Every structure is written in structure tokens, then in C-alpha cells.
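Per your request, structure below.
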């Protein structure tokens, strides 16, 4: 598995000023294979002092070498990084699959998405243009886009490589120097890809990484006075702490938090097309996807019929080790398994009906954190399982009466990330898309989180600000207005 594992075994998992180093404290965090519940590596537990060093290195790079690197050259560097990541795609997919437990085939596809981020933002780097503003006679007014300076990036464990690309590629393209705190539960591909960026020619200090705990390195980074912008992806609870810390220094943030995304299936839907998309949207990554379609809202007149078809599909699915390329792998850790099982058991105890469960492959290790995808019915609309994020492969089915009821039900949580709408009626497609409270809407399709090109982010408890697409470059830069009087 190359240098990511080597770095991890030597605990040299901090990247500061272009050098891999051990944290101040020499304390280790175990890296656990969730398919086997076995420690197979360690990472360094970075401290506030390590974060200080990383931020100082980023500041030097931001004021020095990186400021003097043209947008064209930044773009070329990201494009070189994309090629190197692609060359190492199989190696990276193997690391990702072991670290997170996800199916190898899925991990490989995610490396392609990571490559796309570097390609997309590499190509966009020299297209971050400002504009000229009509103003008073004898004055020229322009608005230019500048990098923030030093950006902080806190990312989760569910899609480590993809999250790295999504966060870091636009930041560097826009001209920022970055400090990244990856998730303690899975970050080995992040370390390996960072080395590939160095191999592509990234100057020292432009990307710095501090591995460690959220409550330590993460908290220190979000409270740091010399950070100009924060992008955080994770739970609403940690998002609140990050916002509070950032408020101390008025540091702007983008927050990508959780979701309870609905798939609305009207009575005229093409259910043959909807069925695999609905199942995939909750089973992919064992439901550990912020934009997982975790609620299926079905027109009451078709509810029994379509619920039976969903149940039959759930019963066919298998969960197992990454090499088996099953529908999904284990949950990320024991705590997450206990949380998911606890929420489902509590719901069943309160009258929610278990309509169908998938099976765990016979060769799946007993110790692994495997949780069989579960379809729940008879779910009261306000029950916690119907409105709160589970972050596991658990789909709640609820019937609705008419279009107004469907929209009301879709909007009945405090989240608003992604919505799927399944209907053949074009007018209804437009009406519903406009009325749902959601950062993205997919009509007769569902791409959990959407493509690299599509602006992505939430409303309400799902967060604010946008990543992906060209919108990310707006977030990662700031407008400066320059007014010049001329004779
Ligand atoms: P988490 O919030 O515990 O951790 C996410 C990251 O934040 C990790 O790197 C962690 O170390 C760090 N962190 C934790 N506490 C912190 C603190 N006090 N200060 C600074 N950083 C801190 O979340 P998780 O359990 O790793 O991920 C699951 C959650 O993330 C789910 O709610 C899910 O919906 C959400 N998520 C959202 C998106 C999105 O794009 N909207 C993507 C993936 C995950």
C-alpha cells in the first residue's frame, strides 16, 4: 500500500512545510479495519501546537511562493496531480477499501471522482475572473477575486479521498494555502494523495495536514486566529462547535452537515427506473452518505404495491468484505454500529414495522461492523427515525395523500440537502422542485451529492455555503472592489 501505510506506521502523518513529521506528543491513534475490527496501522495525534506550526507554514506559503505562482501554473499543477492520482488509482482504491470497509469497486469509482476534482479545478484555476462596474464619470471600478489566504479544511471519514479532492482542489485553484484535518477514523488515502501532490510539484507549505482528533486538532484549527476561511464537512453537532470557535475571530465558514433526504414517488412514476436508484441511494456506502436518500415517500394509492417491490429488492442484497463487492460493506466503527442498531431497535420497540432486511454474507468476519440494510414501514411522521439522520443503511417508507402533502412531508425535517422527485408529469416536476427546501433536486434520477460540476450544499440543519462546481471557487475567494479616479 505504499507510503501512506509507511507514513502511518512511523506516525509521520503530519505534513508541515512540505515535510512528513510526527506530532508533538508522540501519541498514536489506532487505524482500524472495520471489516475485521483489527488495528492495522496508527496515525499521529496532532495537538494545538502542531496546528500552530501548520498554519504558520501555510501563511508563509500564502504570502510567498504561492502568491507568486500564476493561476495558469496552479492549474497545470492540479492537472499533473490528477494524472498521478489516476496512475495510482488501484493502489489508492485498495487503501480506501481497507480503511473504510467499502466495496473495492466503489472505492475505485471514488478515486475516479477524486481525479475529476483535480481536473475540473485545474482547468478552472485561470478562469476565476472579476468584472468591471459602470460607475461615476472619471472613475473606473473593478471587482477582482482574490484568495482568502489560509484556508482550513475539516473532513469526515465516509469518503476520505473524494472529500479531500472536493475541498482542497478548489482551495488551491483559487490561490489559497491550506491546512487540512482529516478524520481520525479513515485518512490513509488522504496522506497518500497529499504525497502525490508533492510529487506533482506542489511547493512546501501550500498544503499542510494535521492528523488527530476532532476535539483536539480540529478544535484548535477552527479556533485559530490566523485562519481566513473554514470549510467543514461532518455532523451538525461538530458543525455548531466549529461555528462557535470561528465566531471568536469572525472567520467565515462553509458547513456541509447531515441530511434526511426524501425520494418522492408519485403515482405516475416509472417505478422500474426509480427502484434501483432508491435502493442504491440508501445502501451505497452503507448509508453513511450525507445525501443518502433515507426517506421514501410513496403515493398512498401505490404504497403497498411499491413497498412490496422495495422489500423484495432489500431481501436480495448482501453485505460483506470489500473484496466481495457486495451492495455495501461494514459501518465505520463499533460506535456507529451501536448507534444505528440502537435507533432501529428503539423504533421497532415503539411500533415501527421492519418490512425487510438484507443479509450478511456468510464469509463476513463475525467481528466486523456489518449492519444489514433495513426497510422500515408504518413510520409515524414525527418519529425520530423519520426525521433524524441515522447515517446507516436504513430506509423509512411513508405514504402521502396528494402533491401538497408530499411537499409538506418532504419539508418536515430540519434538514434540506437533496430531494429526489419521481413523476412523469412535467408541470408537477417543476412545481415540486420549486417548493422543496433542499440544496439539490434530482428529477427522475438521484445522484447522491451530485457530480463534481454541480453546486452542492444544504439549507437549515444541513449547513450553508456551496461546494463543488464553479460555486466552490466563489466560496474559496473573496471580492475586492477597486475604484480608480482618472483625469
Ligand atoms: P464528525 O462531525 O464527528 O466529524 C467530522 C470531522 O470533524 C472529523 O474530521 C472530526 O475529527 C472533526 N471534528 C469533530 N469534532 C470537532 C470539533 N469539535 N471541532 C473541529 N472538528 C471536529 O462527523 P462524522 O461522524 O465523522 O461524520 C458523520 C456526519 O457528517 C454525518 O452527520 C453526515 O451527514 C455528515 N457528513 C456530511 C457531508 C456533507 O457533505 N454534507 C458529507 C459527509 C458527512
Amino acid at each position: 500500500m505504499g507510503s501512506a501505510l509507511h507514513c502511518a506506521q512511523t506516525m509521520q502523518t503530519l505534513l508541515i512545510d512540505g515535510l512528513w513529521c510526527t506530532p508533538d506528543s508522540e501519541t498514536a491513534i489506532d487505524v482500524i479495519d472495520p471489516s475485521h475490527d483489527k488495528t492495522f496501522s496508527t496515525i499521529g495525534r496532532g495537538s494545538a501546537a502542531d496546528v500552530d506550526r501548520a498554519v504558520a507554514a501555510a501563511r508563509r506559503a500564502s504570502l510567498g511562493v504561492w502568491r507568486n505562482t500564476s493561476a495558469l501554473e496552479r492549474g497545470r499543477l492540479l492537472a499533473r496531480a490528477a494524472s498521478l492520482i489516476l496512475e495510482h488509482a488501484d493502489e489508492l482504491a485498495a487503501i480506501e477499501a481497507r480503511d473504510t470497509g467499502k466495496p473495492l469497486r466503489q472505492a475505485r469509482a471514488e478515486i475516479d471522482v477524486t481525479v475529476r476534482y483535480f481536473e475540473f479545478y485545474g482547468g478552472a484555476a485561470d478562469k476565476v475572473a472579476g468584472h468591471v462596474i459602470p460607475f461615476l464619470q472619471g472613475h473606473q471600478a473593478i471587482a477582482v477575486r482574490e484568495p482568502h489566504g489560509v484556508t482550513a479544511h475539516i473532513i469526515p471519514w465516509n469518503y476520505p479521498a473524494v472529500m479531500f479532492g472536493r475541498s482542497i482542489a478548489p482551495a488551491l485553484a483559487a490561490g489559497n494555502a491550506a491546512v487540512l484535518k482529516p478524520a481520525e477514523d479513515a485518512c490513509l488515502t488522504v496522506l497518500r494523495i497529499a504525497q502525490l501532490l508533492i510529487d506533482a510539484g506542489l511547493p512546501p507549505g501550500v498544503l499542510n495536514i494535521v492528523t488527530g482528533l476532532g476535539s483536539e486538532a480540529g478544535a484548535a484549527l477552527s479556533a485559530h486566529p490566523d485562519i481566513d476561511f473554514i470549510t467543514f464537512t461532518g455532523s451538525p453537532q461538530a458543525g455548531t462547535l466549529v461555528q462557535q470557535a470561528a465566531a471568536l475571530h469572525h472567520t467565515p465558514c462553509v458547513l456541509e452537515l447531515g441530511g434526511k433526504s426524501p425520494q418522492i414517488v408519485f403515482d405516475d412514476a416509472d417505478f422500474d427506473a426509480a427502484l434501483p436508484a432508491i435502493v442504491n441511494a440508501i445502501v451505497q456506502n452503507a448509508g453513511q452518505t450525507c445525501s443518502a436518500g433515507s426517506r421514501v415517500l410513496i403515493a398512498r394509492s401505490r404504497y403497498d404495491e411499491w413497498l412490496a417491490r422495495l422489500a423484495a429488492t432489500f431481501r436480495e442484497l448482501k453485505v460483506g468484505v470489500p473484496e466481495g463487492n457486495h451492495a455495501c460493506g461494514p459501518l465505520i466503527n463499533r460506535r456507529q454500529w451501536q448507534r444505528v442498531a440502537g435507533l432501529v431497535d428503539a423504533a421497532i420497540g415503539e411500533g415501527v414495522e421492519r418490512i425487510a432486511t438484507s443479509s450478511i454474507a456468510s464469509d463476513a468476519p463475525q467481528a466486523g461492523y456489518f449492519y444489514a440494510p433495513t426497510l422500515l414501514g408504518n413510520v409515524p411522521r414525527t418519529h425520530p427515525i423519520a426525521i433524524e439522520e441515522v447515517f446507516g443503511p436504513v430506509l423509512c417508507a411513508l405514504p402521502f395523500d396528494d402533491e401538497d402533502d408530499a411537499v409538506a412531508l418532504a419539508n418536515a425535517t430540519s434538514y434540506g440537502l437533496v430531494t429526489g422527485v419521481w413523476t412523469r408529469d412535467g408541470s408537477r416536476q417543476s412545481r415540486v422542485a420549486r417548493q422543496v427546501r433542499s440544496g439539490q433536486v434530482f428529477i427522475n434520477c438521484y445522484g447522491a451529492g451530485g457530480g463534481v460540476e454541480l453546486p452542492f450544499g444544504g439549507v437549515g440543519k444541513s449547513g450553508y455555503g456551496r461546494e463543488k462546481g464553479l460555486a466552490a471557487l466563489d466560496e474559496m475567494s473573496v471580492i475586492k472592489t477597486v475604484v480608480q479616479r482618472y483625469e
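The chain has a mean pLDDT of 96.

Regards,
D.
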